[in-house]
């Protein structure tokens, strides 16, 4: 029986690091003290593009090349390229088309972009795993998630401007006869908060017609912790139907949006720190790729070994929640 394993993962971020002091001073000049907010979100540093040469696409290409090099592969070894982003550099053509060219992939490689907001890369990995498993002619897929978040972060609002970082992660999935690989996934969607986070605020048609602005994400106040109760239920369901408990999972690679949510998750499942991957203090919130930044650093620090159970979880605007279970 074939399984779909994670062969390798790589990340890329710009060189420019910005620490909390910059944002504290920035919002102090607006009469706001954001120190409690930064502690709540768990921020210390983040990497921000500060030049005209980099963007979400260039970050994705760099991450993809690094992943291929680590895996000892070339673009010709891929059967599928999926690009997850909520800040695409182009809509015509797909961003995946540029990645295809940059890594010299073959003509019969499937390429497309996907967008499930911050849940996007986890969704894309899960979907690609299913596709590989169902197609006897396919062996490998590259899934790359990249968000140029600072491009559309509002300098007047700390929730985006002081919270986000720029970065990309690339994962290579490979078909194997080994016993490890993708196991199961689960989702929960509640569209009640669909209008709380929007870009463009009034829609693309209004922005392009010049009747509305499209400079920054519009983020209306709401309780982001609303996603946690259904998260607990879905994770418990996912584990139970695979005869596992939370203690069987070696590493939880969760959305790095808010440290407070991760702490709620940790408390609910009674997990020690060794089972939680937290890197939001290091990279800021990188959006779609954030669980895979956590996964990458856990591997780098030898906190995960082959054969360990790993659970990815993320939440997207609207809101949608997704979890994917792997035996690495």
Overview of this protein structure:
- With 328 residues, this protein is an alpha/beta fold.
- It folds into 2 domains: 3-178, Thiolase/Chalcone synthase (Peroxisomal Thiolase, Chain A, domain 1, 3-Layer(aba) Sandwich), CATH 3.40.47; 182-327, Thiolase/Chalcone synthase (Peroxisomal Thiolase, Chain A, domain 1), CATH 3.40.47.10.
- Helices cover 31% and strands 24% of the residues.
- A 5-stranded mixed beta sheet has the order 1-7-6-4-5, with helices on both faces. A 4-stranded mixed beta sheet has the order 8-13-12-11, with helices on both faces. Strands 2-3 form a two-stranded antiparallel sheet.
- Helix 3 (56-71) crosses helix 4.
- It is globular.
- It starts with a strand and ends with a strand.
At CATH level 2, the architecture of the largest domain is: 3-Layer(aba) Sandwich
Query: Largest sheet at a glance?
Result: 5 strands, mixed
Number of strands: 13
Q: Span between N and C termini? A: 17 Å
- The arrangement of helices and strands along the chain is EEHHEHEHEHEHEEEHEHEHHHEE
Overall pLDDT: 97
How many separate domains make up the residues? 2
Category by helix and strand content: alpha/beta
Note the beta-strand portion.
Answer: 15-25%
């Amino acid at each position: 029986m074939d399984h779909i394993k994670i062969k390798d993962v790589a990340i890329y971020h710009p060189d420019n690091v910005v620490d909390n002091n910059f944002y504290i001073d920035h919002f102090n000049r607006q009469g706001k003290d954001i120190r409690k907010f930064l502690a709540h979100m768990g921020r210390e540093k983040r990497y921000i593009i500060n030049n005209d040469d980099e963007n979400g696409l260039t970050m994705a290409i760099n991450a993809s090349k690094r992943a291929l090099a680590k895996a000892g592969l070339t673009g010709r070894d891929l059967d599928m390229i999926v690009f997850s982003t909520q800040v695409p550099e182009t809509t015509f053509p797909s961003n995946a088309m540029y990645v295809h060219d940059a890594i010299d992939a073959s003509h019969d490689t499937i390429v497309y972009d996907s967008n499930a907001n911050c849940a996007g890369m986890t969704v894309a990995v899960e979907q690609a795993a299913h596709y590989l498993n169902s197609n006897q002619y396919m062996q490998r897929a590259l899934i790359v998630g990249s968000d140029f978040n600072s491009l559309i972060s509002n300098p007047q609002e700390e929730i985006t401007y002081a919270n986000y970082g720029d970065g990309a992660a690339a994962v290579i999935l490979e078909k194997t006869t080994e016993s490890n690989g993708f196991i199961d996934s689960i989702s929960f969607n509640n569209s009640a908060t669909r209008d709380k986070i929007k870009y463009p605020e009034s829609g693309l048609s209004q922005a392009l017609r010049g009747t509305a602005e499209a400079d920054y994400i519009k983020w209306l106040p709401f309780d982001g912790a609303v996603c946690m109760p259904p998260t607990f239920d879905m994770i418990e369901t996912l584990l139970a139907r695979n005869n596992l408990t939370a203690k069987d999972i070696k590493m939880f690679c969760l959305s790095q949006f808010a440290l407070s949510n991760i702490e709620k998750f940790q408390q609910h499942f009674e997990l020690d720190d060794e089972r939680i991957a937290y890197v939001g203090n290091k990279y800021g919130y990188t959006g779609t790729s954030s669980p895979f930044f956590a996964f990458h650093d856990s591997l780098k620090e030898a906190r995960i070994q082959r054969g360990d159970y790993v659970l990815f979880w993320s939440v997207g605007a609207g809101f949608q929640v997704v979890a994917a279970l792997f035996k690495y």
